[in-house]
């Protein structure tokens, strides 16, 4: 079972800039917990994502010596990937590929066809550098634009990513609309069809819907889940402050009740929970 903690996703939409030293203190605390991966920052245009403009500086302040966690950074184009690959400390580059043409344009200012070309470029760069691409399939459970969506359409995208050699795909419920039956079916279908690909879940959810989404992912075979402490972050497009990220503390409770041993240091996690109150208010 892999738990990916996502402070980058929790922070990126906040209007007030969080001081780099505060970010570093928070992420260093997360690195003590024992998460498989920490999604810590992004190499994107600072005009598009001003909160993340200090990612390179932040990286220099992270204490990785005693941590077993790997680092993931989000990129939106080839240039961002090249910038991220200057840092040996980064293990994964994440790229948001959308099922929705509208959202792809809004999120990365590219068409889906252009975004797929970027995925191929990033994959080629990562193979040279010994890094791994994590492709997030945004709007993987539906979209608010009335655009076509089906399990078969998702399968077509997975097939294209498989052809490019992508080994980790995170099915993303960008606006919190995924129903448990659909979650279970999407994971079960794709995991059976592509056993060599690691499928993860990046859910956004109202608090009362978290447990059933995690249960559905488990039933479908998912063993990789993203979260953010206290559910901070989420998609601003949702226009609902309760549709944030899956709260990591709730996810941990659900998974442990199901008998999964997560090998997390819960004392350090408790300290991270306290620090989150200071960071996010």
From TrEMBL:
Key words, A-Z: Lyase, Metal-binding
SUPFAM superfamilies per UniProt: Aldolase (SSF51569)
Residue ranges constituting the Pyruvate carboxyltransferase domain according to the UniProt record: 1-270
Spans through the membrane: none
Gene3D superfamilies per UniProt: Aldolase class I (3.20.20.70)
GO terms of molecular function: lyase activity
Family: Belongs to the HMG-CoA lyase family.
Protein name according to UniProt: Hydroxymethylglutaryl-CoA lyase
Origin organism lineage: Bacteria, Pseudomonadati, Bacteroidota, Cytophagia, Cytophagales
């Amino acid at each position: 079972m892999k738990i990916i903690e996502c402070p980058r996703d929790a922070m990126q939409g906040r209007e007030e800039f969080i001081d780099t030293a505060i970010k570093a203190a928070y992420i260093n605390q997360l690195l003590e917990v024992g998460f498989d991966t920490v999604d810590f920052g992004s190499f994107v245009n600072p005009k598009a994502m001003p909160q993340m403009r200090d990612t390179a500086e932040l990286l220099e302040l992270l204490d990785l010596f005693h941590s077993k966690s790997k680092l993931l950074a989000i990129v939106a184009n080839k240039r961002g990937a090249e910038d991220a690959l200057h840092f040996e400390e980064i293990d994964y580059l994440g790229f948001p590929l959308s099922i929705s043409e509208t959202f792809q344009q809004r999120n990365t200012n590219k068409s889906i066809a252009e975004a797929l070309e970027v995925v191929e470029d990033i994959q080629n760069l990562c193979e040279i550098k010994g890094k791994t691409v994590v492709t997030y399939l945004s709007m993987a459970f539906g979209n608010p634009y009335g655009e076509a969506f089906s399990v078969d359409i998702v399968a077509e995208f997975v097939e294209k990513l498989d052809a490019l050699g992508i080994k980790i795909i995170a099915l993303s419920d960008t606006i919190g609309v995924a129903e448990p039956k659909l979650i279970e079916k999407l994971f079960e279908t794709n995991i059976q069809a592509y056993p060599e690909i690691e499928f993860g879940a990046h859910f956004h959810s109202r608090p009362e819907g978290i447990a059933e989404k995690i249960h559905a992912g488990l039933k479908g075979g998912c063993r990789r889940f993203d979260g953010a402490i206290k559910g901070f972050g989420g998609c601003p497009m949702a226009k609902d402050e309760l549709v944030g990220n899956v709260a990591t503390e709730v996810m941990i409770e659900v998974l442990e009740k199901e008998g999964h041993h997560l090998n997390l240091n819960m004392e350090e996690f408790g300290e991270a929970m306290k620090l989150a109150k200071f960071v996010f208010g």
